[in-house]
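Reviewers of the previous submission asked for a worked example of the structure-prediction workflow described in the proposal, so we include one complete record here. The input consisted solely of the amino acid sequence. No template or homolog information was supplied to the procedure at any stage.
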Amino acid sequence: MAKTKYVYYFGDGDAEGDESMRLILGGKGANLAQMAKKPLSLPVPSGFTISIDVCQEYYKLGRKYPETLAAEVAKNLAKLEKSMGKKLGDEKDPLLVSVRSGAAESMPGMMDTILNLGLNDKSVIGLATKTNNPRFAWDAYRRFIQMFGNVAMGVDHDKFEAIIEEVKEKAGVKEDTELTTENLQEIVAKYKAMYKKEKGKDFPQDPQEQMWGAIGAVFGSWMNERAIIYRKLNNIDERVIKGTAVTVMAMVFGNMGETSGTGVAFSRDPSTGENKFMAEYLINAQGEDVVAGIRTPMDISALEKQQPKIFEEITKIRNRLEKHYRDMQDMEFTVQEGKLYMLQCRSGKRTGAAAIKMAVDMVAEKMITKETAISRVKPDQIDSLLHPTFNKAELAKGIKIATGLNASPGAACGQIVFTAAEAEKWAKDGKKVLLVRKETSPDDIAGMVAAEGILTATGGRTSHAAVVARGMNTPCVCGCGDVKFLDAKTISINGKKYSEGAFLSIDGSTGIVYEGKIATEPAKLGKDLETFLGWCDEVRNGSVRKIGKSTIKGFGVRANGDQPIDAENAFAFGAEGIGLCRTEHMFFDPAKLPYFQAMIGSETKEMREVALKHILPLQQKDFVGIFKAMKGQPVIIRFLDPPLHEFTPKTDADLNKVVDVLKKQGSKVDASALKAIFNSLHEFNPMMGHRGCRLAITYPEIFMMQTEAVALAAIECQKAGVKVQPNIMIPIVGEPNELATIRKECEEVIARVQKEKGVKTSINIGTMIEIPRAAILSDQIVQSADFYSFGTNDLTQMTFGYSRDDAAKFLDVYYERKILADDPFKTLDSNGVGALIKMAVEKARSVKPDFHCGICGEHGGDPASIKFCYEAGLNYVSCSPFRVPVARLAAAQAVIASKAAAAKAPAKKAAPAKKAAAKPAAKAPAKKPAAKAPAKKAPAKKPAAKAPAKKAPAKKTTKK
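From that input alone, the workflow returned the following structure tokens.
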């Protein structure tokens, strides 16, 4: 068996790798190889890259290397020494190398690099003599000791800095560049003494020991805390990006005098996306000085005046690299005594605004296609454009006091209040408030609407606070366990007390909580974003999927919205309908709530109907507003879902309001009796209790009132010339007879209203699949349904057996121990929940091939979940209004990815299989009578009989 290749050489105008090998060589190694070879043939110092495979083996073997690695490294090091005409550790003319990290996806600054490796007490003197520049040599040596000591050996960085500061103060200088050779020699001596004190041994003098120590440090940095956090924050999937490569590369020096320097450049502005060269340059410096901000660099335009030839060369390279990679490039370069070297290039990190501008501009420049532009922009970059942000200058001064879960993006600042009522009151007085709660409940909705942002001590990203906040585009940080409630007016955060009225600021995009006021800025949207999203819509709506007997045209994006303002926002963001209108939120309207509570407290059907009559016109008005806002687009209205106890009065004053309503309706109930009725509604497990369709079975008048309101609203709109597409959705169905029974009652109401008004209206009736049993019985439930919408919040809870509000207590440990890769309430579980969805869709379409299916859970706005929905054959996804632009992009990306995967799939070799099956099939004359059935024409069946997997006799027998 062939030996695994672990090391790849580049240099001397050629390379063993190229840009296609990112998953093996990492981004840095792959791009260095590509720059070194034709057609680019750029000035790249020679070197070699140790593959990502070694990183995986390193951790599998308990931080040890594969047996063959040492020999491969030695072979490539010899090749490097020959290329450079120097030897590692040579006392007279030493080869010095850098040891750098490089994962397949760029992680700037998250992993470790060591420069100037190969220097020791003897070779530093040889370097000084060879270059005739003692200051440069001793500066390089002190840098190497500091970097190796800190990165490879774990000596505190501050201990090195303290020595530099001590020597600078003693010498009476402020800048590192002012240090003399003697000063640097003193620093080296002090460094080595401190190193020996810290580590109990001398600083290593053997270059081989140094090199392997540095290689181990770089591989080790893959699992350092900052790298792990960065991967989590940037959704870097460790199942795909499996480690870092290590590149060992000949050093070139920017700190050899006034004709040397180092720079970092971007081929376009990474903040704005503007097509202008943005670069910074430092004379007489090494790369770390620019990246670490040790010195303030000058704009690249200064280089044009000082070294015009270098400026011209780097400008040409900038253009060549961008043309080659067809993307904005982030480049690092060094000038050594008037000669330019390229040390790195990669696709540059950019802001959301820059990503959109670059995508649109590059399509206009015919550099990339629309499909490439769509694939290149990350959904998170779109999301960042839709929410307020903190002013950068003010944020830099902010004091971080805690971190929770980034539940709803955006920045918010306000005075803290602890109840929804206070939030409403303070907001009416013109104050900006931040609602701080242990957790929120549905009756907090008015206070949540009034608040600038929401901070909770408990709950996850799909808790009530998170879901509602995202729907309203309100910044929210959930599950901030450092928030402790001391009393009704005071909290403490990490031991510091904050009373009602104190100012806090939260960043829902990062989960960080800040003390005091931080100014915010509104999101800025432009024409480029509209153009870009228009391309996304072209791709989505033009897609065609053939799945089984079904042909699904297009892939829609709808929004979840409960009020007319939600529908208006959704339409403005490009939603193609309302995929979920939760009517329970309408009942918290102060005009409706006392009557709904009176309905709950009524003990007879007649009394309940009296209370519901007061709500009917108000509910009708809500639906009219939503229908008008959606301008003829489909609207799915989910009938009442939560258990009734969620609507009961919480205070005696509210209880007395309900008593008054009931007395006006002729009831003789008193407050104590009514309170007893409300208390009896308490349930031990309300999520699986008396809710949804179960309410409709026991109290049919609730859903009948809602059906009448929908029908009346539809007819009112039709009369006004407004097109409508109303859809009624029955929640929590788990038994086919539930939906059949409720559908019949709804149809009777619709028929009555049409007869009374003399107008016909078309209203579809479907169900929400959120119980595993419903997915299993989908082929039976579909008989009474016009559509399905998958409620994946509850479907996930019931499939996993996790409470989404409590799962945050243990899920972090599940991620750390690799039991789960993703939060199942954020990204759809394709193996379990996804299997149920696929089963339900397949069973439904086996009965009705054109059956319409969508998703309306929180997963409808998650890009990975949207990709699954496309592959599963759903017609649309539905998410919160402010996630609609993200979903439009993610849906288009799903279409493009599906086409790319189909194009890569190997062609099926059907011919040999057909020949093998043809003879036996032809010998079966007994099968001919079955073809006489009028519904089955023999000619259509004959080709199918040739496929070995489908035997004609079995097919025909089962259908008799």
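Residues 913-960 have pLDDT under 50 and may be disordered. We consider this example representative of the routine output the project will generate in years two and three.
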